[in-house]
């Protein structure tokens, strides 16, 4: 039988699957089977939608080969000179390409997500002005006593290039009186006489921000959508209802990027929604709402305004958006950060909450490089990351994703070793579905370095890091296979008091967004942040909870039960404002047997409506439940009394997260300290055996344990920069774990290395012999500009030491390596420390082969030094890490190759 060529990948995938299944039946592994959702996924930039089927297929095969599990398609601006190949978004040809992508991906065992639009944020040609992003516009007029106001009211045309819609007019008298003049309008005309006193008139308009879709692709340009209007959303999805007919269930998820809808602080129906939700007419308080002064009434009105914006975004956009997608058998994936609302509730409205990180974080790992000229400081704050994972945990969503590695280093300067600890910090804070940011579709005809998105890092076959990327991707997949298993095992909830932010003047800014890149404005320095940090530092696993999820909580057997999980305790940090209903529910939970711990008590309810009477009720509630809500002076003592114990293993410097798998615990331990951590560490489980799993090598074995009444002591050895998983079990299931220790100091390998350049460009330098290891850029002008892969070969005799195992340490590697010993492939070394176990050595003439791949930076620098232009992209084209014009001619050559020193160390296995 002949197999049609376009079905060939499918059959290969089936055969591979059958072979894998057969092998899995023969060899039982403690590792879960690696599925596509365990693997890292990639945001896939389609530049100008100038895609074709042969290149789509080859790109997807590239993804599958290196261990990527799926792609998220984001169409963006195009490449100059490719205009004839541009494809309009949602056109029949575009949908044909999307359909081909989904089918081909499926044949390769990959899945596909897509953005509901091009670029970001949501918007496009179908967005008419009535449904475009809206802003609050107010014009003021002074009317003296007995003066007649008779004129047309329009927004200032010099400021409002798009005519604004007049919604209401209200008059505020010098004597404190208020008159609603809206019903006296005749169109935009008002004829009214000021009686008894002078008045200030406020005219309220629904203006348009005029914001267009950012980085739009062909066929995707247009206004940004009003994100506070379900009517606007319903109109927006009409083209997708038509285009996606027949795609139901074939796409995995629909994605919505971070809230970068600038200055959109209003919607045409806002005044009606406000009165319905807050219980009073906002027009009566426009002067206080718009005042920049810090006053109690003004701050309360502003709090109500901000809460209403949050309600509308959640209930008029995010929730119906997920409902729309689910009706088509799609999941939703949402980046809620940047939104003007309660991030916990917004993240939880999607099937997959997604956070992001930006820039480079510092680590104490010896040999971890973070050159100041190549980085911008990162903001991967663990507390911020927990908003997304907490939302997933309390709402019962199994996945939390992350936009990962954005601007980790400047273009072409990111090494795989620099990605690993950044990914680990995400995994440690509850993220278990990493998305690379990103990979640019680039056809084979494109001259190197191919098509490239403006924000680094670019994970595709044109980038030299692709050579050893399977090592990073395999590590992530191994970690995520365990971190997606079971359920989260955080025992403590921490109340997030959002009204303390909503109820502030915020330096006169009415509209406030909870941005991930400006944490000082709303998170850092708050009692909530300080309590989170001190609990985490002590080793408590925790999730955040909002007022709305407290309202959903019940109690069973003393546990606080939420839609997604159960918790032993709930801590209320010091806060100024709390809704009366929230405090009533907290007390009810405590009376039902829940462990609710108050660090402080609210002084007031939020908002304006009936607040004085509400405050009295709050005071009475506290007084009548004084013993129940008595603040604690020592939260750690209170947690201990509630039988919630911390993981004191953090005292060693290890970072951790844990999960529960059918009653057994899975611990992920990471060492980002400067030293090896070894010895016995405590786990808060009693009388257990412990299985050790190394996600870098997939080696397993049972640990040496000391069983105690309340804890199990586990022997570990984790070098700086490395990690382990520990899984509790009732009986030992594997052979003992090997605890290797150095018998002697490292022994340097000396002699003459043969260096051969294997692949890369712009040309292959001539082979060389190297007696002293250093950067290959010093060998020749051709080697200085070379980016790619070279092989170092050395012969050496075994030192006169009896050892069954030897550790190879490569020293300083620029930037990743593969190792062979005596013709046998040993494995990769792509992360710090660049070490690997070799096994046994021959007595004479051992041949060590080390294949090293550097970064693409030197080749790009050479291109620009010779005036060769590769930056041929529309719109932002190409910028550096600081968003200045990209200029590689300013760079110095990056050290490349094997710098060493290369050493071997004899190992012995400790038995106890």
Automatic annotation (TrEMBL):
Keywords recorded for this protein, A-Z: Hydrolase
Superkingdom field: Bacteria
Alphabetical list of Pfam families matching this protein: Glyco_hydro_106
Transmembrane segments: none
InterPro entries registered for this protein in UniProt: Galactose-bd-like_sf, Ulvan_degrading_GH
Tagged with keyword Metal-binding: no
Protein name, entry field: Alpha-L-rhamnosidase
Gene3D superfamilies reported in the protein's UniProt record: Galactose-binding domain-like
Annotated organism of origin: Flavobacterium glycines
């Amino acid at each position: 039988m002949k197999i049609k060529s376009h079905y060939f990948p499918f059959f290969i995938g089936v055969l591979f699957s059958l072979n894998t299944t057969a092998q899995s039946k023969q060899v039982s592994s403690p590792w879960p089977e690696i599925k596509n959702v365990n693997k890292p996924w990639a945001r896939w930039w389609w530049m100008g939608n100038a895609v074709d089927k042969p290149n789509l297929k080859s790109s997807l095969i590239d993804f599958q080969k290196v261990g990527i599990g799926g792609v998220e398609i984001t169409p963006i601006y195009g490449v100059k000179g490719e205009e004839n190949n541009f494809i309009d978004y949602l056109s029949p040809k575009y949908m044909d390409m999307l359909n081909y992508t989904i089918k081909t991906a499926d044949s390769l065992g990959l899945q596909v997500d897509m953005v509901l639009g091009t670029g970001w944020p949501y918007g496009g040609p179908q967005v008419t002005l009535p449904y475009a992003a809206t802003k609050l516009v107010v014009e003021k007029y002074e009317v003296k006593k007995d003066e007649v106001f008779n004129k047309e009211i329009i927004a200032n045309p010099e400021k409002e290039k798009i005519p604004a819609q007049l919604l209401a007019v209200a008059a505020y008298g010098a004597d404190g009186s208020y008159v609603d003049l809206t019903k006296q309008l005749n169109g935009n005309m008002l004829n009214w006489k000021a009686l008894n006193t002078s008045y200030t008139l406020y005219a309220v308009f629904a203006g348009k921000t005029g914001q267009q879709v950012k980085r739009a692709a062909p066929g995707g340009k247009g206004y940004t959508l009003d994100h506070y209007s379900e009517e606007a959303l319903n109109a927006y999805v009409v083209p997708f209802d038509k285009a996606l007919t027949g795609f139901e269930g074939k796409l995995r998820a629909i994605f919505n990027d971070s809230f970068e809808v600038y200055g959109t602080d209003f919607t045409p129906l806002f005044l009606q929604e406000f009165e319905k939700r807050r219980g009073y007419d906002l027009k009566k308080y426009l002067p206080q709402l718009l005042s920049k002064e810090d006053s109690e009434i003004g701050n309360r009105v502003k709090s109500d305004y901000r809460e209403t914006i949050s309600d509308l975004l959640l209930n008029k956009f995010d929730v119906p958006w997920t409902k729309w997608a689910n009706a088509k058998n799609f999941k939703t994936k949402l980046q809620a950060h940047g939104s003007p609302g309660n991030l916990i509730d917004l993240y939880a409205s999607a099937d997959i909450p997604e956070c992001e990180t930006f820039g480079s974080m510092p680590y104490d790992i010896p040999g971890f490089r973070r050159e100041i000229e190549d980085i911008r400081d990162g903001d991967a704050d663990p507390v911020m990351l927990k908003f997304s994972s907490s939302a997933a945990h309390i709402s019962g969503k199994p996945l939390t994703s992350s936009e990962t590695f954005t601007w980790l280093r400047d273009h072409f300067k990111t090494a795989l070793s620099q990605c690993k600890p950044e990914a680990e910090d995400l995994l440690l804070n509850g993220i278990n579905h990493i998305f690379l940011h990103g990979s640019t579709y680039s056809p084979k005809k494109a001259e190197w370095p191919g098509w490239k998105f403006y924000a680094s890092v670019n994970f595709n076959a044109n980038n030299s890091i692709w050579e050893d990327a399977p090592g990073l991707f395999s590590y992530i997949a191994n970690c995520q296979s365990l971190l997606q298993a079971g359920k989260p095992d955080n025992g403590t909830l921490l109340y997030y008091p959002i009204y303390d932010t909503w109820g502030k003047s915020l330096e006169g800014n009415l509209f406030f967004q909870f941005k991930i890149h400006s944490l000082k404005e709303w998170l850092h320095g708050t009692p909530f942040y300080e309590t989170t940090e001190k609990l985490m530092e002590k080793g408590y696993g925790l999730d955040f909870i909002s007022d709305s999820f407290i309202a959903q909580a019940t109690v069973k057997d003393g546990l606080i039960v939420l839609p997604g999980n159960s918790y032993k305790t709930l801590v209320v940090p010091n806060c100024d404002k709390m809704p009366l209903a929230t405090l009533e529910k907290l007390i009810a939970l405590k009376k039902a047997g829940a462990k609710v711990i108050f660090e402080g008590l609210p002084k007031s309810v939020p908002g304006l409506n009936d607040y004085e009477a509400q405050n009295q009720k709050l005071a009475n509630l506290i007084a009548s439940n004084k013993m129940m809500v008595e603040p604690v002076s020592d939260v750690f003592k209170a947690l201990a009394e509630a039988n919630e114990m911390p993981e004191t293993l953090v005292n060693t410097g290890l970072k951790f997260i844990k999960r529960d798998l059918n009653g057994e615990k899975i611990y992920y331990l990471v060492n980002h300290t400067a030293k090896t951590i070894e010895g016995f560490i405590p786990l808060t489980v009693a009388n257990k055996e412990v299985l050790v799993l190394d996600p870098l090598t997939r080696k397993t074995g049972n640990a040496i344990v000391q069983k105690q009444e309340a804890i199990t002591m586990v022997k570990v050895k984790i070098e700086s920069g490395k990690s382990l998983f520990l899984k509790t079990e009732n009986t030992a299931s594997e052979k003992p774990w090997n605890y290797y220790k150095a018998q002697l100091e490292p022994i340097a390998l000396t002699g003459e290395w043969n260096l051969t350049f294997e692949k890369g460009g712009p040309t292959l330098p001539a082979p060389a012999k190297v007696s002293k290891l250093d950067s290959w850029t010093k060998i020749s002008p051709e080697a200085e500009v070379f980016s790619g892969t070279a092989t170092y070969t050395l012969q050496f005799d075994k030192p006169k030491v009896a050892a069954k195992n030897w550790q190879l340490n490569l020293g300083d590697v620029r930037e990743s390596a593969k190792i062979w010993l005596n013709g046998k492939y040993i494995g990769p070394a792509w992360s710090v420390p660049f070490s690997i176990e070799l096994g046994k050595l021959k007595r004479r003439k051992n041949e060590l082969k080390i294949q090293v791949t550097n970064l693409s930076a030197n080749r790009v620098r050479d291109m620009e030094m010779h005036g060769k232009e590769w930056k041929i992209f529309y719109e932002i084209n190409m910028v550096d890490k600081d968003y200045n014009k990209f200029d590689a001619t300013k760079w110095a050559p990056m050290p490349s190759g094997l710098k060493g020193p290369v050493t071997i160390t004899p190992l012995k296995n400790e038995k106890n």
